């Protein structure tokens, strides 16, 4: 296979390398989201699954398994499992956040209703669960069960820490592990386990997924304040308006004097926001270097992801995964 | 153990017989619904779990295992699993139905918010999943995974058949299998499997749970039209006002002339309901014997549940389970 790495983004390179398995994943997903009597299920699911997601999580499972020399096809089932879990959480997230747009399209809760999003999400969780039982690996089931609990606990934690300026960096880390990193690390770890990799390799691929997911989510939270709506699909300041306590806010609040603390209390805790408040928040970020240190933290986690892979034997997929860690933070200024 | 069967209701007799295991289930549930950082989780869960539910589903698992001679403690984990799945579905149901009361208390979506009900429900599903992996039985996992899918598909199906007078008895049966019977039969089947019972016994206990659940749900749907709010906790006609197409309506519509068909179209499909419409519906039920034949169908399913148990060896729990099948339809007139 010839692969011009300079011209190709890492997730595109992954898609090329993993093309046969990824096609099998897509076929399996279409097959398993069908429902003879409840056509609402494939309608809602297709709306989301075919909306141009990058299939990043299933590719992580496939890549981990294939770089460990796996030649069977159970990794396809696990990859589809991971995508179903991801899609189910998106459906429920959009209900919880009362979102109206995702990936540039209206959300399912808007097109159908909250009921459909809740119940179809539950259906996808159940289908994920059926799929992950099929390979017959209790260890993989343990990994995915634990990841599901971390994800759900992180979501509830996020609900109760929202608008709370006392949120610590440790709690923020737990929230983003639940929101993003737990599924990334379960994806890579379960790929290694199904391939029968040794313990050091399983651990390395878990650590890679965990660090990659954390870097990815910190970058996402930072881009909410400095991104471009055209490339991120989000408007600058969405998190600010929704009073989310992400890392830039935590850093700015930690460095705040009494006047600044009062400002954060008003806009985030009380939710009293007016014209100019987002600009003032940006000025406070600049004064305390909150965006710059947040970027550095994201870069540090990306470096940890690369370091986790370093001891593994050379493999083209190892190179692409390492590039992927750089790529998720490369969009940051 | 002395047990005066004439003075004790079957679910109370089950609770007495299974007391040590049931105490272990309660302890395990309290332990596993804890969350160090997200106190909202045990708050919401305790509100529902401690609200005086009868623990019917976990008792079915314990009873099936113990009457098959099981002496280990994995059945306690499966019983807690089943109660967690049940509680999670109640949380999501109350969001979907926009309910304000359950078991005579305000619902979680009213006390907290829909977000908490959705996410805490997800957390309970994840905890259920962790618990069911622990006994290490792939066959039990398969049973519970399949039941989860039937439950979720039934819920979505109910959503899309609501207000649809074309709903057939076959579709109605699929909905109530998802809503109620799938978890009953998974409870009894998984209890038999964990006990290492032979195939005929596993099948008999599955069939018992399935028929019991169907009898239970048909009875519930019938009581919506003839129950007493004091004993059922529901107001007569709730399903009518919510335009649900349950068995009495299906039977009345099947026997309707053109005028009656127009009435059903107006009140159920169009949702145009006024004073006297519920009384008129009751008169149509009486004209066509719709409540009487619905009651007979519930009795038939209760008889099927008893018949499923018949080939099993004598055991005090077998007698109580058989009585339970009578009991769920005994409230019907």
Based on Cα principal axes, name the global outline of chain A: globular
How is the CATH topology of chain A named? Answer: Farnesyl Diphosphate Synthase
Q: Classify the beta-strand content of chain A into a percent band.
A: under 5%
State the low-pLDDT regions of chain A, or none.
1-5
Give the strand order, joined by hyphens, for the main sheet of chain A. 1-2
Helical coverage of chain A, percent range: over 70%
Individual helix count of chain A: 17
CATH top level class name of chain A: Mainly Alpha
> What would you say the CATH architecture of chain A is?
Orthogonal Bundle
Oligomeric state of the chains in view? homodimer
The H-and-E topology of chain A, N to C, reads as HHHHHEEHHHHHHHHHHHH
Structural class of chain A: mainly alpha
Helices, strands, pairings?
Two copies of one chain form a homodimer.
Chain A: H1 10-17, H2 19-32, H3 40-49, H4 56-67, H5 74-96, E1 101-102, E2 105-106, H6 108-111, H7 114-133, H8 138-161, H9 169-194, H10 199-226, H11 229-232, H12 238-241, H13 247-254, H14 258-270, H15 277-288, H16 290-309, H17 316-330
How do you describe this structure in short?
Two copies of one chain form a homodimer. Chain A has helices at residues 10-17, 19-32, 40-49, 56-67, 74-96, 108-111, 114-133, 138-161, 169-194, 199-226, 229-232, 238-241, 247-254, 258-270, 277-288, 290-309, 316-330; strands spanning 101-102, 105-106.
